[in-house]
Amino acid sequence: MPSSIPLLHSVSAIAYGFRYRAPLKHTCLFYTHQLYTLQPPNFPLFSSSFCRVPNPNFFTGNSLFSRMEHFLSGSGINRNKGMIEQLQRYGVIKSKKVTEIMETVDRGLFVPEGTPAYIDSPMSIGYNATISAPHMHAMCLELLEDRLQPGMHALDVGSGTGYLTACFALMVGPQGRAVGVEHIPELVAWSTKNVERSAAAPLLKEGSLSLHVGDGRKGWPEHAPYDAIHVGAAAADVPQDLIDQLKPGGRMVIPVGTFFQDLKVIDKNLDGSLSVRSETSVRYVPLTSREAQLKGT
């Protein structure tokens, strides 16, 4: 990336190549294979390692986001499929399997009632938590696809409303195991109801999909080791318990950092050593204790 530059007030601090799950008012805009992100109104001005700010004329009444919002908030018969087609069109979804799974698991069942489920934006689910923007779910499914084959084990840390856990369960199938861990009991209860209304309901009933109240930083040892681990909140450091529960040959996707974060892809080699790379810059809510999360600290 080029050296740091101040963000611009004129376009509400637009960043190129910076992908957000939170803060909640961020709106992600696709441009080729990167993302533009529009800053919320009260976000402080700061410098960072963003790439060059694009031409502000891109953000006009004819901007790509305006077209996406109009398309996805319309009265189409299948807006979930429309959302997926947009993600495919802009290069986020490439895999046939990820397409199939995201078409099967309707995002609309996993967001608060009355919210725009198919817009590419994170949104609040209460308790100072969010559900990721659809492009982040798609990206994580693509990154983990090879470790979400039938019969494999997957762990979703910070499972929230249950959306990604349901996707994992359908990918690993009834012979596999998909585990969601969330430390807010009310979210676990809600996510269970969400899954019961979804295509993953039979897997929940049969027991190959399970949702648990617990500290996700400690993983869920009962069904370890895991071929795939997804962490839906940013850790200052990768929790050792999660590394220990990752199977040799397995992969973890986890945002790492405090204010500035990178989405890390961690592969555990067959000899137990780790290979780590950064996929992209992100902004997630912190991976913290239940008490700290409820306080918003």
From TrEMBL:
**Its catalytic activity?**
[protein]-L-isoaspartate + S-adenosyl-L-methionine = [protein]-L-isoaspartate alpha-methyl ester + S-adenosyl-L-homocysteine
What keywords sit in the KW lines? Methyltransferase, S-adenosyl-L-methionine, Transferase
GO molecular function terms here? Answer: protein-L-isoaspartate (D-aspartate) O-methyltransferase activity
| E.C. number | 2.1.1.77
Taxonomic lineage of the native organism: Eukaryota, Viridiplantae, Streptophyta, Embryophyta, Tracheophyta
Name this protein carries in UniProt: Protein-L-isoaspartate O-methyltransferase
Principal EC category:
transferase
Query: What biological-process terms (Gene Ontology) are attached?
Result: methylation; protein repair
- Gene for this chain: LOC107774438
GO cellular component term of the entry, any:
cytoplasm
Q: State the family it belongs to.
A: Belongs to the methyltransferase superfamily. L-isoaspartyl/D-aspartyl protein methyltransferase family.
Q: Which organism is it from?
A: Nicotiana tabacum
Q: Per its UniProt record, what NCBIfam families does this chain match?
A: pimt (TIGR00080)
Q: Does the keyword S-adenosyl-L-methionine apply?
A: yes
